């Protein structure tokens, strides 16, 4: 299915989306037509095809880089689709395509992460997939993955019927699911016509309001007769403002607007329109103002101009086999104590992320939120871009640049609750307690001090579904991390409640079926319109079928956040006795997930970095980080820091290798960022207790990222940063997170050893604080030979080089059962180190000394399964 197009500007010629990742035509498929293969057999055949590609090509990597540079310089700029293209093939097959069928060119600056280049004046425009018909079954198709779910069959059938009935009602009453999800083209401000005149339509659903007028800079905040809206039978207020006689807009671009309403209680209030696209706060004002955002001119593709609409230039990258997610917050991404901007993040931070090997960013705090310290989770304006960091067009430029780098962009979207803020948000919008929310106590989240949506309300569904589509449509986001999903799915919000795994806890009277059905609807919408979309749900409950497709009766998410892993690491780090670390318990937590339901594993996220908590680095090294992070020869040393650096690397590699089908890291934690995050705040009182809460004087000192620490050659932060980069590129080369086979062959409590295989790789962890092991035998599935491809003991990672790829040792396997594996080989496992062994044919001890090599990583060319 084609997902988007390039348009030649201004001639209108069309070129197909670049095909990145296709094999040469002679070896394009691993399975014959109609042939059914197991996942493992398919992977083996694909591996063989890639090896054949290498045999045919036999092109040195340095030569590939030179040839690509030449091709980039001389590549033609087509004005119409091409039917054939040229490429240079190496270990990555056609991943290093120089010129594909659309004329898109991969930039030569780094063959590990090639950037996309497209012809000048090419504009990227989405094309949508069709809305799927509802399958004819009873909602129990997902039971094929878990037969024990039949005990909850009646619940699944009930919620499936609710889902089907809502879809049918939308089709019957709203002209279809797709139209229903485009509420932003009807509500809020939109250009249109009325009685032959062009102008601005403004519409607002406010059924409890008695009167509504539009006010702002355009009428000096004093409405005339022409600025009063009319209310229809469905509670929607409508107003049309024709253009001025000179053809200019009645409301100038970038001017302030509000809706002045007589509310249900008779009071008059000025409200920010619920569908506003931008809201700003003046430096000398407390309240926010809505801003009419409609740049009058369209910029050239990729042009950043404050007075022009941004035009996207680069295609959405293909959906990765496995996500390596860099969780980030634009505002606190500056090295300086200030609020950073979208354009500064684009210029300074995106290149760092790309160099580290992450293929996805998850951006927090995009939706406007009046209180900066909420980390973006108390949303006031759901369609508005956070104005602290810049304009809507500048955010688009950030997303487009990420796409150029081959990075998909996920948004941390908040549909689980809304800010209680009455002045700036949608709470009490028309003066009534309900509207988009539940009325009474059910509409108030006692823990978060926020409002809870009524997911069974028709206009709430329209508002939220349209919101999910809006960010994908307008800003070209590639998917979402849905915040607080556990709170949505249960009437008790998952608070003061322990989930034991009994299915009655998930499928009973405590379940908010309306909320679960909404999640099915939004996943249905997003995955149909945007087939490469990624959705991740923050669920701590372990809801069964959460990550099964909605077509099967599942909730429809692609991934669940594996939140228990971070808690487990905190638990074991509190045990200062390293001998008390339980290997079996660690492995159980890392692998404890439902079959056929993908998870995103992480050792720590933003939650662990906030004030009051500790990052892994700080748990391990505490105050010694302030005085003993100098490299040997540059300052005093500490055994506590040495231990912390060693375990920091091991914890992260074990998590990415075993913790899920994808991986997440929060900005800065890859290099052990010191200190917690403390947003600027002033002294206040807790409204629920009346207790005094001291602030920090509004300081940004602890609300920034100290990139200079990772860049300093004399500090050990560089070692952690380098190791994180290496383990990400290891997945790029071998695709171990997406490999279908994982086998844990050893969890030895006495030796403190963990050994497992994932894909073609063998991982060996020695958590023993003092004991190193010579000739330690480890089991494996495939016969060797093997070589060391990654070791935490490399000098590049602050190790002692007791176990290094530079030794170039070949490990021959021996046949015979060992730890239930058909083959085995012997390794050296120093204390507090981890190592990864790969088939010898895919290793090169000198790889990191070559152009674009990754320090400490010994992969030949780009590895057998190279992907973004």
TrEMBL record:
Residues 1-26, 69-88 are annotated as: Disordered. Residues 345-713 form the Glycosyl hydrolase family 13 catalytic domain. Keywords: Amyloplast, Plastid, Transferase. Pathway: Glycan biosynthesis. Residues 69-84 have a biased composition (Low complexity). GO terms for cellular component: amyloplast. PANTHER family: 1,4-ALPHA-GLUCAN-BRANCHING ENZYME (PTHR43651:SF3). This is 1,4-alpha-glucan branching enzyme.
């Amino acid at each position: 299915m084609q997902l988007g197009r390039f348009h030649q500007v201004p001639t209108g010629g069309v070129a197909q989306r670049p095909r990145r990742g296709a094999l040469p035509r002679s070896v394009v498929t691993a399975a014959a037509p109609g042939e059914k293969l197991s996942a493992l057999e398919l992977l083996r055949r694909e591996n063989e095809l890639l090896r054949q590609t290498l045999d045919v090509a036999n092109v040195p990597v340095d030569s590939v880089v030179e040839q690509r540079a030449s091709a980039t310089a001389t590549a033609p700029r087509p004005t119409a689709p091409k039917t054939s293209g040229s490429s240079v093939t190496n270990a990555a097959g056609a991943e290093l395509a120089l010129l594909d069928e659309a004329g898109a060119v991969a930039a030569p600056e780094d063959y590990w992460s090639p950037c996309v280049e497209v012809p000048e004046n090419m504009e990227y425009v989405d094309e949508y997939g069709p809305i799927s018909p509802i399958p004819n079954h009873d909602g129990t198709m997902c039971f094929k993955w878990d037969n024990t779910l039949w005990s909850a069959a009646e619940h699944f059938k009930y919620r499936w019927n609710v889902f089907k009935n809502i879809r049918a009602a939308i089709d019957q009453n709203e002209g279809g699911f797709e139209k229903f999800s485009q509420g932003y083209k009807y509500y809020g401000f939109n250009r249109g016509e009325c009685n032959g005149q062009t102008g601005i339509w403004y519409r607002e659903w406010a059924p409890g309001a008695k009167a509504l007028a539009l006010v702002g800079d355009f009428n000096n905040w004093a409405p005339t007769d022409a600025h009063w809206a009319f209310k229809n039978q469905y509670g929607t207020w409508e107003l049309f403002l024709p253009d001025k006689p000179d053809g200019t807009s009645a409301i100038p671009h970038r001017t302030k607007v509000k809706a002045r309403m007589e509310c249900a209680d008779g009071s008059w209030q000025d409200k920010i329109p619920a569908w506003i696209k931008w809201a700003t706060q003046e430096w000398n004002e407390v309240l926010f103002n809505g801003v009419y955002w409609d740049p009058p001119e369209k910029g050239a593709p990729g042009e950043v101009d404050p007075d022009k609409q941004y035009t996207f230039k680069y295609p959405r990258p293909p959906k990765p086999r496995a996500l390596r997610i860099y969780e980030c917050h634009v505002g606190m991404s500056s090295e300086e104590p200030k609020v950073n901007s979208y354009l500064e993040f684009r210029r300074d931070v995106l290149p760092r992320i790309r160099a580290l090997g992450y293929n996805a960013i998850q951006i927090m705090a995009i939706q406007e939120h009046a209180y900066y310290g909420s980390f973006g989770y108390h949303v006031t304006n759901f369609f508005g871009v956070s104005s602290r960091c810049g304009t809507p067009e500048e955010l688009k430029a950030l997303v487009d640049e990420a796409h150029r780098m081959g990075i998909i962009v996920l948004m941390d979207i908040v549909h689980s609750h809304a800010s209680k803020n009455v002045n700036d948000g949608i709470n009490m919008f028309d003066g009534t307690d309900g509207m988009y929310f539940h009325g009474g106590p059910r509409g108030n989240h006692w823990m978060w001090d926020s409002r809870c949506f009524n997911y069974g309300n028709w206009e709430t569904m329209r508002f939220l579904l349209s919101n999910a589509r809006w960010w994908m449509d307008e800003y070209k986001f590639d998917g979402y991390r849905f915040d607080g999903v556990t709170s949505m799915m249960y009437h008790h919000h998952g608070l003061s409640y322990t989930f034991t795994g009994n299915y009655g806890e998930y499928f009973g009277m405590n379940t908010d079926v309306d909320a679960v059905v909404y999640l099915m609807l939004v996943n249905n919408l997003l995955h149909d319109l945007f087939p490469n979309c990624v959705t991740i749900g923050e669920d701590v409950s372990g809801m069964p079928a959460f990550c099964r497709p909605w077509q099967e009766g599942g909730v429809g998410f692609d991934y669940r956040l594996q939140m228990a892993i971070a808690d487990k690491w905190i638990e074991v780090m509190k045990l200062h006795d390293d001998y008390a670390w339980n290997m079996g318990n660690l492995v159980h937590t890392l692998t404890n997930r439902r079959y056929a339901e993908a998870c995103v594993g992480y050792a720590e996220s933003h939650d662990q970095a906030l004030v009051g908590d500790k990052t892994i680095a700080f748990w391990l090294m505490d105050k010694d980080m302030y005085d003993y992070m100098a490299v040997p020869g540059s300052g005093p040393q500490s055994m506590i820091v040495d231990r912390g650096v060693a375990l920091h690397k091991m914890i992260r590699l074990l998590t990415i290798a075993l913790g899920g089908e994808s991986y997440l890291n929060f900005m800065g934690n890859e290099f052990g960022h010191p200190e917690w995050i403390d947003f600027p705040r002033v002294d206040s009182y807790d409204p629920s207790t009346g207790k005094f809460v001291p602030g920090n004087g509004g300081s940004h000192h602890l609300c920034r990222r100290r990139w200079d620490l990772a860049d300093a050659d004399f500090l050990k932060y560089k070692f952690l940063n380098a190791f994180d980069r290496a383990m990400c590129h290891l997945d790029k080369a071998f695709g171990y997170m997406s490999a279908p086979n994982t086998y844990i062959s050893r969890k030895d409590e006495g030796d403190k050893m963990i050994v497992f295989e994932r894909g073609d790789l063998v991982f060996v962890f020695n958590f023993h604080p003092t004991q190193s092991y010579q000739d330690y035998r480890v089991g494996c599935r495939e016969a060797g030979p093997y070589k060391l491809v990654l070791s935490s003991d490399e000098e590049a990672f602050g190790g002692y080089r007791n176990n290094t790829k530079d030794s170039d040792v070949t490990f021959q396997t021996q046949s015979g059962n060992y730890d239930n594996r058909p083959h085995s080989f012997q390794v050296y496992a120093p204390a507090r180190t981890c190592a990864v062994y790969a088939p010898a044919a895919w290793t090169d001890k000198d790889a990191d000394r070559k152009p674009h090599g990754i320090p400490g990583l010994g992969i030949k060319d780009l590895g057998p399964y190279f992907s973004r």
